[in-house]
Amino acid sequence: MSTVQRSLVLVKPDGVRRGLSGEVLRRIEAKGYTLAAVELRTATPELLAAHYAEHEGKPFYGPLVEFMLSGPVLAVVIEGERCIEGFRSLAGATDPTKAAPGTIRGDLGRDWGVAVQQNIVHGSDSEESAAREIGIWFPQLA
Ligand code: IDP
């Protein structure tokens, strides 16, 4: 049975700054997912408040928003069978020190000794999150 999904991927400001946007897109395409939208964007506090609503009140929330505003992000919508779970596998664990080698965070990320985990990418974690996040970043696609 077909379960084609869309997922919202962000190359976070650390990834864009380090010139890893192309490498992330390469891994997405090499996996066989297609790109439905790609756009270099500068986030706003309003957009991030919506995107990270579930984390409001957590100790890392302030540093997370500040970090996400520190430079442009590459906003991407990917498409493919079970691509939500598939991209989470490509990304690896949230903490780049613990992320397995072979994953984006495991191969390319590390701890920088700052308050927020700068872990290169974001990927939606469920169909519900994907629909909500695509609506926030690409309302024209929702
Ligand atoms: P995810 O990006 O792997 O889905 P989430 O739990 O949704 O992880 O957290 C959102 C982002 O917040 C993470 O990607 C990371 O940048 C940051 N973050 C999450 N947990 C922590 C933490 O315990 N300390 C510092 N930063 C964190």
Task: Please tell me about this protein's structure.
With 142 residues, the protein is an alpha+beta fold. The chain has a single domain (4-141), classed as 2-Layer Sandwich (Alpha-Beta Plaits). 39% of the residues lie in helices and 20% in strands. The chain is built from seven helices and four strands. The protein has a four-stranded antiparallel β-sheet. The longest helix is centred in the N-terminal third of the chain and has 11 residues, at 21-31. The mean pLDDT is 97. The structure holds inosine-5'-diphosphate. Its main location: cytoplasm. It comes from Nocardioides ganghwensis. InterPro entries: NDK-like_dom, NDK-like_dom_sf, Nucleoside_diP_kinase, Nucleoside_diP_kinase_AS.
Please describe the structure with a list of short key phrases separated by commas or semicolons:
about 140 residues, alpha+beta, Alpha-Beta Plaits, four-stranded antiparallel β-sheet, binds inosine-5'-diphosphate, nucleotide metabolism, phosphoprotein, metal ion binding, nucleoside diphosphate kinase activity, metal-binding
pLDDT below 50 for ≥5 consecutive residues: which ranges?
none
Which class in CATH terms? Alpha Beta
Gap between N and C termini: 23 Å
Q: Compounds present?
A: inosine-5'-diphosphate
Q: Structurally, how many domains make up the residues?
A: 1
Give the strand tally.
4
Largest sheet: 4 strands, antiparallel
Shape verdict: globular
What is the topology, as strand order, of the major beta sheet? 2-3-1-4
Structural class: alpha+beta
Helical content stands at: 25-40%
Radius of gyration: 14 Å
Instruction: Please state the oligomeric state of the protein chains shown.
Output: single chain
